[in-house]
Amino acid sequence: MDTGRFRVPAGAVDWAIAVCVAALLLGTGLSGPHPAGERALLGSVLLAAGGLTLVAHRRAPIAVLVVTGLCAVGYEAAGFDVLAVSYLVAVYGAVRSGHRTLAVAASVSVLVVLPLVALVFSDGSAREAFAQARNVLEIAWLVAAFATGEALRQAERRADEAERTREETARHRADEERLHIARELHDSLTHQISIIKVQSEVAVHVARRRGEQVPGTLLAIQAAGREATRELRATLEALRDDGTTPPQGLEHLPGLVERARSMGLDATLTVEGQQHDVPATVGRTAYRIVQEALTNTARHACATTATVRIEYGPGTLSVQVDDDGKAAPDDAPAPGLGLLGMRERVSALGGRLRAGPRTGHGFTVQAELPVERAS
């Protein structure tokens, strides 16, 4: 059951505590022996002020501690013999927030000042003055408030440490899983891709030594093998490092377009708009979209040209890849992992993706990536 919707705001709780303490102090002070006239009015104001000050005990615990202590001294001087409940709550709040030394220093000061004030403003004997000061602030209640605040502070600290430990354990497990995936990829793919790359390069070398024309498909296999080796190496490095290695992004697009040209595709890159820095996740997503689109164009579209357009907007980055392949307007895009991966990447950033045949013939991939949201 979700109880988050019924949680009482902290501000409302603070106001409730402050009003209740103020009412308790006023009720206790006015129901017992108390002075009359202006001293009664002054004491009542100080009683109420001491309680209402507690509304700020979370935001300014030291200030509340000082104000409630002064109010306790003030209404004792005015003739009210009331336990300083507001000061006890302030001591609890200060200790819970970590200000133990200041809470001890302030409490010692109040314990020293209260008997002196009672001696000055009371008409009774010294024993009666000390008894009155003890009634305003008893050491036992003060120790209890201090101990309660310290106990809750320690409990919260242990809870925070436990939360950090859980997060560190989760990160450690994620690192282990990432390294396991890297080892599996290395063992299962690196060897096979290396064989394809070496065999294609040997075949190209032998054909050229014999003076034979190298088939375009063989050159494409050679280029694809080199690209797959680079991609696999980059993937393994990303899995093995701690995230500090700069990812492939917009600055790597010219090299990506150049490799597409080496595979026989007349590819061009156009950048429009006022260039500005974009988050690494946006740049990486744009790179992967262009990479997947150019790969699909070279492998499946039977295209001769491809245009890549990057447009910087005020809060967006637009990516568009067009080709002149065989796709017709009535053709439905063939479902595949490439398009699915692009959609997942764009959706994760809150962007939009459109992939489908162009008017006339050819295929287009358009993505709009929000820059501000991704950052």
Secondary-structure element order, N to C: HHHHHHHHHEHEEHEEH
Shape: elongated
What oligomeric state do the depicted chains represent? Answer: single chain
Number of strands: 5
What does the main sheet amount to?
5 strands, mixed
Account of the 3D structure:
- This protein is α+β, with helices and mostly antiparallel strands.
- 65% of the residues lie in helices and 10% in strands.
- It has twelve helices and five strands.
- It has helices at residues 10-31, 38-52, 61-78, 85-96, 100-121, 126-136, 139-209, 216-240, 253-262, 280-300, 337-348, 371-374; strands at 266-272, 305-312, 316-323, 352-357, 363-370.
- Strands 1-2-3-5-4 form a five-stranded mixed beta sheet.
- The protein is elongated, with a radius of gyration of 38 Å.
Which labels suit this protein?
disordered N terminus, alpha+beta, 12 helices, 375 residues, 10% strand
Task: List the SSEs and their pairings.
Elements: H1 10-31, H2 38-52, H3 61-78, H4 85-96, H5 100-121, H6 126-136, H7 139-209, H8 216-240, H9 253-262, E1 266-272, H10 280-300, E2 305-312, E3 316-323, H11 337-348, E4 352-357, E5 363-370, H12 371-374
Parallel strand pairs: 1-2
Antiparallel strand pairs: 2-3, 3-5, 4-5
Helix pairs in contact: 1-2, 2-3, 3-4, 3-5, 4-5, 4-7, 5-6, 5-7, 7-8, 9-10, 10-11
